Amino acid sequence: MDERGGDAVCFKKLIEISPDLVELEDYHLDELRHQCFNVESYNKVYHHYNFTVGMKMSNSADWTVKLNFAEVKKICRIKHYLCYPLEENEKGQCYACKNRTKEWKI
After folding, report:
1. Are 22 and 29 in contact (CB under 8 A)?
2. Distance CA 92, CA 84 (A)
3. Which phi and psi (to 5°) does residue 101 adopt?
4. Lower CB density within 10 Å: C or N end of the chain?
5. Nearest-CA neighbor of 56 among 48, 65, 43, 47?
């Protein structure tokens, strides 16, 4: 898992704080579906990921795959991490992607 970047760190932080993942027995990062890198300025760098995670809960014999959104913001040399699960048709709340969408509209 450590060969991956910010998505792995963000998901590990989600495990630490999410009551829904208390029963998580094992997991593996599966597919990186989308990523976006944005430099707003030298002091504001954003990197977002949409990725799937295979998870095995201790109360089940089955593995499930869930889509997640993760964002790493580096503001004034301090990294901030955000991660949350998505529904299959969601994309997440990426600041940079929203701004690019506005710029690309003709």
Report:
1. no
2. 9
3. -60, -40
4. C
5. 65
Distances (CA, A) of 50 to 24, 44, 103, 104: 20, 20, 21, 21
Residues 6+ apart with CB under 8 A from 5: 47
pLDDT digits (tens, 9 = 90+) for 9-54: 999 999 999 999 999 999 999 999 988 888 888 888 888 899 999 9
Residue 71: how many CB atoms within 10 A of its CB? 22
- Which residues lie below 8 Å from residue 23, measured CB to CB, with a gap of 6+? 57, 58, 59
Give the bridge partners for 86, in sequence order.
67
Structural domains in the chain, CATH included, are 6-104 (3.10.450)
pTM (predicted TM-score): 0.79
